[in-house]
Design a protein that fits this description.
By secondary structure, this protein is mainly alpha-helical. It is about 60% helix and about 5% strand. The chain has a domain at about 1-55. The protein has helices at about 1-10, 15-50, 60-70, 85-100, 120-130, and strands spanning about 75-80, 80-85. A hairpin with a 2-residue loop joins strand 1 (about 75-80) and strand 2. The relative contact order is 0.04.
């Protein structure tokens, strides 16, 4: 009510410096109280959810459907043509991931023009070969 009175007075005529400071102080207190009330509401909601679990409400199912649709791959570009046929999309996605995560036999390190010392080929191959129980 005090903030409202000061707002009305400010609309009618300018506030004095002390009144303006009081208004700012009251507004900051009000914002602080609002934050505390909001935090308390969130804590109560979380507490209720922990006690009663998920109620599988319409909202819950709406969000699940929305996330599924948002994350779904609707189509891909194959040879500069957009394709939405599910089998083609699956095939193309599989091909992309196979190429991306294909194991390479090249174990060398490249860093621009830096020349690294390396082991001879025979020793290098021996290090990546399977080892026997006797060697251990």
């Amino acid at each position: 009510m005090e903030i409202e009175k000061l707002d009305v007075k400010d609309a009618e005529c300018d506030l004095m410096e002390g009144e303006n400071l009081r208004r700012l102080e009251l507004l900051s207190q009000w914002k602080l109280i609002e934050k505390k009330v909001e935090s308390l509401s969130r804590q109560k909601a979380r507490s209720t959810w922990f006690k009663h679990g998920d109620s599988n409400s319409k909202y819950y199912h709406f969000i699940i459907r929305w996330r599924k649709l948002r994350n779904e791959v609707k189509g891909v570009e194959i040879d500069n043509q957009w394709c939405e046929e599910p089998e083609s999309v699956r095939r193309e996605a599989k091909k992309v991931f196979e190429q991306r995560f294909m194991a390479t036999t090249d174990h060398s390190v490249r860093l621009g023009l830096v020349d690294f010392k390396s082991l001879p080929e025979a020793v290098s191959l021996k290090m990546v070969n399977a080892f026997s129980e006797e060697e251990v």
